[in-house]
Design goal:
Elements lengths: L1 H26 L2 H8 L3 H8 L2 H15 L7 H5 L4 H17 L6 H11 L5 H24 L5 H20 L1 H7 L7 H29 L1
Helix pairs in contact: 1-2, 1-4, 1-7, 3-4, 6-8, 6-9, 6-11, 8-9, 9-11
């Protein structure tokens, strides 16, 4: 009995997370979820009480599926240089965005939240977006120099994230004008290497500008 009930809850959560990715919070209905998961409304209510609670649980589920990175303490220890940590971050971010599979759910939910905010936006900002931005801020300052203003650091972070997101949001057009781009693991690493080289060049140039004014 325990295995059956656990399996039903897991199935509801897994399918709900995918529906929220595909349709957004507003577009996902409990009826559609019930049809897809082959359960009744009372079972969904039993486990999750409301659509809002289900969505929060789906975000937490998606968070667990992500491809994880190395401990951020590696930068402080000096074991991994900031330039290499930046490359790892960009590659991991792109893998979570572009590869098919459950590990891409959280990043896709976050991008949906930026366009169609739901009641979970603050939770996502606190637990996912802000830690990501804090880590990038440390890397940007380590590469571009501590003299960079807070505003300039934030602009650099937006530029890094933007370079990755265009491969998602503009993908149908990209595939028409640049059909040679591949979206398998090897192709994504190639994209990540380009964004990394481009970003490093910009950050090192910014470092020269900052210290030439000092």
């Amino acid at each position: 009995m325990t295995t059956q009930t656990d399996s039903a809850r897991d199935r509801i959560l897994r399918i709900a997370a995918q529906l929220f990715v595909d349709l957004g919070f507003k577009g996902t209905t409990i009826r559609r979820l019930c049809d897809a998961a082959q359960v009744n409304v009372s079972m969904v209510n039993y486990y999750f009480h409301s659509k809002e609670d289900l969505y929060h649980a789906a975000v937490a589920y998606a968070r667990e599926q992500e491809i994880k990175g190395p401990e951020e303490s590696a930068l402080a220890s000096g074991k991994v240089k900031p330039e290499e940590q930046l490359r790892q971050f960009i590659e991991r971010f792109l893998m979570n965005l572009l590869l098919q599979g459950p590990h891409s759910m959280l990043t896709k939910l976050i991008t949906r939240e930026l366009v169609e905010p739901s009641g979970a936006i603050q939770d996502i900002i606190t637990n996912d977006i802000l830690p990501q931005h804090r880590h990038l801020a440390v890397l940007v300052r380590a590469i571009a120099g501590e003299g960079l203003s807070d505003e300039a650091v934030q602009q650099c972070i937006f530029s890094i994230i933007g370079q990755a997101l265009i491969y998602v949001h503009n993908r149908p057009i990209n595939e028409l004008i640049a059909p040679s781009i591949r979206y398998d693991e090897a192709g994504i690493r190639h994209i990540a290497d380009h964004i990394h080289r481009f970003t490093l060049g910009a950050l090192k140039h910014q470092r020269k500008l900052t210290y030439s004014k000092a």
